[in-house]
Write a structure and sequence with these properties.
This is Alkaline phosphatase family protein. The chain has 382 residues and is an alpha/beta fold. It folds into two domains: 257 residues, Alkaline Phosphatase, subunit A (3-Layer(aba) Sandwich); 104 residues, Gyrase A, domain 2, CATH 3.30.1360. It contains 15 helices and 20 strands. The chain is globular, with a radius of gyration of 20 Å.
Length: 382
């Protein structure tokens, strides 16, 4: 069977958490973990869902990106889910330190927090928790962007206007000048404008559509490939506008796998996966299983026996000791499930009642397979 061993995130050396500190270090002419050479203006473009394996498999659809030099694949971190990765990118810290530990996770022994929408379920409906669970407290670390601004760097973020002021934006990108955009044209325009400002400049651009089409139609589908072609051209346009001291770096937050319906296990209709379970967090490829008091051992045995070779199943302590989350602070430890599950192959544990939308998706990510963990770091200089 494929994926005989998990791809452990290379925290501290070659993970997503090293990207922003390394690029800002390059602005200051300092040695940095990824060995980025000095630059006066740096633009980081994150293409959501563009794993290294996907880019290699579809190089013909991305001739510009595929032509760029890279320094080998980075690892996304665990779970390899968007909010976790964006927090690592924004803070320069691993998940165990910044505390955004999944698409959903328990906060302060309370209900599950949906970290994408910053909501919890109240009377069966999502309720905004930005007041009761302030993002600056849930993720208490100072961001790498905020530190750079304090050091005199012109720090800008270009991302969807709808994300301005969101809980996840406040948790991961505070300290930057947020420029809301509506399409790829104004995203590119904001990045090109930032690169023309007086140095030192750090601008970060985020694009979500490739990930969205991968979820809906599957990575490598026709719609996904056509979107990749458009992104390739946008990246080339930004590269063409680089000033003499400019650097364009391109990375991703995770890869993606195609999950066929036959590989989906529905926890909401599988009684064994409900026994002793108080809450089920995470997403279909990476699950936090919160057990009822005294039931953790039984839950571990049940999930291990039922999933078998389709998942890596660990206790909280084992997952921490194995380095899945990086160094975990005492404050963040309770947010991790009593049992942690990372799917192998193309298996997913869905919740058709509790998570109907995400359960129906074709493309999924979040686990420790090479397809999900390995992400590129491409560089362009003028």
């Amino acid at each position: 069977m494929v994926d005989t061993a998990p791809v452990l995130p290379a925290y501290g050396s070659r993970s997503l958490a090293e990207v922003t500190p390394s690029l800002i270090g390059a602005l200051r002419g300092e040695a940095n973990p990824l060995g980025i050479e000095p630059a006066g203006r740096v633009c980081l473009l994150l293409v959501d869902g563009l794993g290294t394996e996907l880019l290699a498999a579809h190089a013909a659809d991305a001739p510009f990106l595929s032509s760029l030099p890279g320094a080998g694949a980075l690892t996304a971190g665990f779970p390899s889910s968007t909010p976790v990765s964006l927090a690592s990118l924004g803070t320069g810290a691993p998940p165990g330190a910044h505390g955004i530990l999944g698409v959903s996770f328990a906060v302060e022994h309370g209900p599950l927090l949906d970290s994408l929408k910053w909501t919890t379920e109240v009377d069966g409906k999502p309720a905004d928790q930005r007041k009761s669970l302030p993002p600056e407290e849930v993720q208490p670390l100072e961001t790498a962007l905020g530190r750079a601004r304090q050091q005199g760097v012109d720090v800008r973020v270009a991302s969807a206007a709808m994300f301005a002021g969101s809980g996840l934006t406040r948790a991961t990108l505070r300290g930057a000048d947020y420029r809301g955009v509506y399409a790829l044209g104004d995203l590119a325009a904001e990045l090109i404008t930032a690169l023309s400002a007086p140095p030192p400049v750090f601008c970060y651009g985020y694009h979500a559509n490739l990930d969205a089409l991968g979820h809906l139609y599957g990575p490598g589908s026709l719609a996904w490939r056509l979107e990749l072609r458009i992104i390739d051209r946008v990246a080339a346009l930004v590269a063409e506008a680089l000033p003499p001291d400019g650097l364009l770096a391109i990375t991703a937050d995770h890869g993606m796998v195609h999950v066929p319906p036959t590989d989906k296990i529905d926890a909401d209709t599988t009684p064994e996966l409900q026994h002793g379970v108080r809450m089920l967090g995470g997403d279909p490829r990476s699950r936090h299983v919160y057990a009822e008091p005294g039931a953790a051992g039984d839950v571990l045995a049940t999930w291990t026996g039922l999933l078998g070779e389709r998942a890596w199943v660990r206790t909280r302590e084992e997952a921490i000791a194995d380095g899945w989350f990086g160094e975990v602070t005492d404050a963040m430890r309770p947010r991790i499930g009593d049992v942690v599950v990372a799917m192998r192959g193309t298996t997913a544990v869905t919740r058709t009642n509790g998570e109907p939308l995400i359960s129906a998706l074709t493309g999924q990510h979040g686990s420790l397979t090479a397809a999900e963990q390995h992400i590129p770091l491409l560089q362009v200089r003028s």
